């Protein structure tokens, strides 16, 4: 019995340690305006200079959350699929794209959804200004925008990590 308890404590401890490492890693990426792209054990880090070269687009989208009235904003960003294609990861044999924020908020897209034209974007500018970080009262430095997601639940603010699986 005692041995079982000790083993369980060690397992829980190891998991807690690993989660803390990931959290610290993600916080650093957030503060450096980086996005971490994961595919199994492979990890690619994208900086802002590089991301803005992947086919920047400007578009209007309506932000409508439970506690605000709908408001149209001008966003600048890149289609999510551009980043994935740049990485060379082949999503044909994958199911899901998991998008995580620095606060732990997580949203799953299926790969088919990401391939639909003019719908899923990673944005970094709103109304002509770079998005601020969470600490500075913004929704950035990156936010996921899913245009056809009417009430913005899946518009992941403070996006730091994208995992393909
Ligand atoms: N990182 C992160 N993104 C998030 C959330 C969150 O809790 N954390 N909430 C979602 C939900 S449910 C809504 S309605 C909107 C809220 O957007 P707002 O804070 O701009 O009103 O953000 C979405 N994106
Ligand atoms: Mo919400």
Please describe what this structure looks like.
There is one protein chain. The chain is an alpha+beta fold and about 160 residues long. The chain has four helices and ten strands, in the order αββαββαββαββββ. The strands form two sheets. The protein has a five-stranded mixed sheet with strand order 2-1-10-5-6. Strands 3, 4, 7, 8 and 9 form a five-stranded antiparallel sheet that branches. The chain is globular and about 60 Å long. The N and C termini lie far apart (about 40 Å). It binds ligand MTE and molybdenum atom (MO).
Summed up, what is this model?
The chain has helices at 2-31, 48-51, 80-87, 111-115, and strands at 35-39, 42-46, 57-63, 71-79, 96-101, 106-110, 120-126, 129-130, 143-146, 159-164. It has 165 residues and is of the alpha+beta class.
What are the defining features of this structure?
single chain, about 160 residues, alpha+beta, 5-stranded mixed sheet, 5-stranded antiparallel sheet, 4 helices, 10 strands, binds ligand MTE, binds molybdenum atom
Q: How can the largest sheet be summarized?
A: 5 strands, mixed
Proportion of residues in extended strands: 25-35%
Structural class: alpha+beta
Mean pLDDT level: 95
Q: In angstroms, what is the radius of gyration?
A: 18 Å
Low-confidence stretches: none
Q: End-to-end span in angstroms?
A: 38 Å
List the strand order in the largest sheet. Answer: 2-1-10-5-6
Number of helices: 4
| SSE sequence, one letter per element | HEEHEEHEEHEEEE
Identify every distinct bound molecule in the structure, by name, code or SMILES: ligand MTE, molybdenum atom
Q: What oligomerization state is this entry in?
A: single chain
Tally of DSSP β-strands: 10
Please tell me what the overall shape is.
globular
């Amino acid at each position: 019995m005692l041995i079982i308890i000790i083993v369980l404590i060690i397992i829980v401890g190891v998991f807690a340690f690993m989660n803390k490492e990931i959290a610290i890693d993600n916080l650093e990426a957030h503060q450096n305006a980086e996005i971490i792209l994961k595919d199994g054990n492979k990890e690619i880090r994208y900086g802002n200079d590089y991301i803005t070269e992947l086919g920047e687009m400007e578009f209007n989208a309506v932000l409508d959350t439970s506690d605000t009235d709908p408001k149209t904003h001008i966003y600048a960003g890149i289609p999510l699929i551009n980043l994935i294609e740049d990485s060379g990861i082949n999503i044909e044999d994958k199911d899901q794209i998991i998008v995580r924020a620095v606060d732990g908020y997580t949203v799953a897209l299926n790969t088919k959804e990401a391939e639909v034209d003019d719908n899923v974007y990673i944005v970094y500018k709103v109304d002509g200004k770079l998005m601020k970080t969470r600490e500075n009262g913004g929704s950035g430095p990156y936010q996921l925008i899913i245009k056809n997601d009417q009430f913005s639940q899946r518009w992941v603010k403070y996006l730091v990590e994208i995992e393909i699986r």
